[in-house]
Amino acid sequence: MMVVVRKLGRKDELKSVVEKAQKNGLLRLVKLSRECIEKGRCRGKTDRDEDVVINLRGIPLNEGDILEADNGFLILIQLKEERVIEFELKDPVEAFKLGFALGNYHMRVMLQGNKVYISAELGEEFLLERFREYKPQVKEVVFKPNLELPVSPVVIDFANA
After folding, report:
1. Domains and CATH numbers, the chain
2. What is the pTM of this model?
């Protein structure tokens, strides 16, 4: 079992280090769920079926990160595909209505061109029924939410009321 000891950086920043590790057989690929990457701690398997423990408290992980394990191996993080519901937007009114409905469920959303993706984690049947007017489809994709509403904290002071 490998235990990750530190994050070295991004694959694109460490090209020569990654190439050297790959040449020497010291590079491993680990596909992780989005939830695991967001938490920063979990267990996974390498592309060679080796166990890996990741627990980098407070250090954010992203796809393409290079981690170093306690045995000297380098680990390249990739996102696993997950089931999503896909919508194709054809006009601004439809887009607004769909956005309003998704916002009411506080769902994280990925937007690519005129396609909207939400995780199927709330249940495919429920989501397909709820959004049937938008002709949703179920797909398996690497889901990277890229739209979130900025939420400003509001503090109400009742002491001086």
Report:
1. 2-79 (2.60.260.20), 82-141 (3.30.70.790)
2. 0.74
